[in-house]
Automatic annotation (TrEMBL):
Keyword S-adenosyl-L-methionine tagged: no
MF term (GO), any: protein tyrosine kinase activity
Keyword annotations of the record: Cell membrane, Membrane, Transmembrane, Transmembrane helix
Residues spanning the signal sequence: none
Organism encoding this protein: Leptothrix ochracea L12
Descriptive protein name: Capsule polysaccharide export protein
Length: 391
């Protein structure tokens, strides 16, 4: 008995498939004719669309130099391998440093530079600046690959303009990068520039105060150099730890374990500095004590100024190298073939979509027709749902 049911079920399925095939064959004008007609229509309309040409340029991903950080450790001393070198290593270990440069290429500053350079508001017939930027963004594709290269592709109706715009992105990026401390060396340079200015002012004040203190015979017998060296060394450690934190804040979030560790190191060396200043006998009474205190303050400011000056020059040299790191691997060339519209793809997609819709329309209509014939109640409900023209 079960074998008979299985056989009946298979026969029913064969009849159903045959019925579907007959229905599709009966309405072949819709199933096949409509996709063919729509595909030809789309193909014809595609020739009315003005072609666009894409030009692509590639640049090498800017690398973060670590030589400056290593030299900083050597000159500061006392921090060892866990100092700024740790920050440099952490920065080098970022998952995708290309994201920052892609963000700069997509920034409003770069886009405004492109709009002004190529008069894109007039070219794109945009009334407002933001509309021109949006159009430019839609015609520009910027992405990075696993090979460490950033590709910039720009589409335009004129091949020569597309080529010029792709190369112009690099020029605008160079202009922007010169005004920002976007690299580890740039951040160090900016930090030392501020600290150097403050140290110079303090050095001048200390020198003036030293000249006003006067010198006696007992003062000349005093040698505060050793105490000065200790304080200068600890303060140098504080300066290095501050550099490390400043650099890492620009590269990591506040929840980063590396940043938290750097902040703990900074707190530790600041605590050592506070203890050293409390134990410092510069406030001792006696003959020549005022001169000794002022002399030691002057020596510290002098040492700190020389240290910051060396690091400022080193950071400037590293930053100058950074500017040359943005190298063009492949300059944009004149496009020889259009990038859009892709007429073949448009025609095939239109034909396939029309085939699916046409087949679905035929099958649904046939299913409703069969349901009306088999079920009078269902047919009456469908009749009530029909739209009637008001009399």
């Amino acid at each position: 008995m079960s074998d008979e049911r299985i056989q009946d079920q298979e026969t029913h399925e064969e009849v159903s498939l045959l019925d579907l095939a007959l229905v599709l064959l009966e309405h072949r004008n819709i199933v096949l004719g409509m996709p063919l007609g729509v595909a030809l229509l789309v193909l014809g309309l595609s020739f009315l669309i003005a072609p666009k040409f894409a030009a692509t340029t590639q640049i090498m991903l800017p690398q973060q130099p670590q030589s400056g950080a290593a030299a900083l450790l050597g000159s500061l001393g006392g921090l060892g391998g866990g100092g700024l070198g740790g920050a440099a290593g952490a920065i080098a270990g970022l998952k995708n440093p290309a994201d920052q440069w892609i963000g700069l290429l997509k920034s409003r500053t770069v886009q405004d530079g492109m709009v002004a350079r190529f008069h894109l508001r007039e070219r794109y017939e945009s009334k407002y600046q933001f509309q021109a930027r949006q159009t430019l963004e839609g015609l520009t594709q910027i992405k990075s690959g696993k090979d460490g290269l950033i590709s910039i592709s720009v589409e335009d109706h004129d091949p020569a303009t597309a080529m010029a715009m792709a190369d112009a992105y690099i020029d605008e990026l160079q202009k922007l990068s010169k005004t920002l401390a976007v690299t580890e060396a740039g951040q160090r340079r900016l930090f030392f520039e501020i600290q150097l200015k403050e140290a110079k002012e303090q050095l001048i004040k200390a020198e003036v105060a030293l000249r006003q203190s006067g010198v006696s015979e007992s003062v000349l017998k005093t040698s505060p150099d050793a105490a000065v060296a200790v304080l200068a060394q600890i303060k140098a450690q504080v300066a290095a730890a501050e550099v490390k934190v400043a650099v890492m804040r620009g590269q990591f979030t506040t929840d980063s374990p590396d940043l938290k560790q750097a902040q703990l190191e900074l707190t530790s060396v600041r605590s050592q500095l506070a203890k050293a200043e409390q134990n410092d006998p510069k406030s001792a009474q006696g003959s020549g004590s005022q001169y000794v205190a002022r002399f030691r303050e002057f020596k510290y400011q002098e040492t700190l100024f020389e240290l910051l000056a060396r690091q400022f020059e080193m950071a400037k040299a590293d930053e100058a190298k950074d500017g040359a790191i943005i190298q063009v691997v492949d300059k944009a060339t004149l496009p020889e073939w259009k990038s859009s519209p892709k007429r073949g793809m448009m025609t095939v997609l239109a034909g396939v979509l029309s085939l699916i819709l046409g087949t679905a329309f035929v099958l649904i209509r046939q299913a409703l027709r069969n349901a009306r014939e088999r079920d009078p109640v269902f047919a009456e409900k469908l009749k009530k749902l029909r739209w009637r023209r008001p009399s």
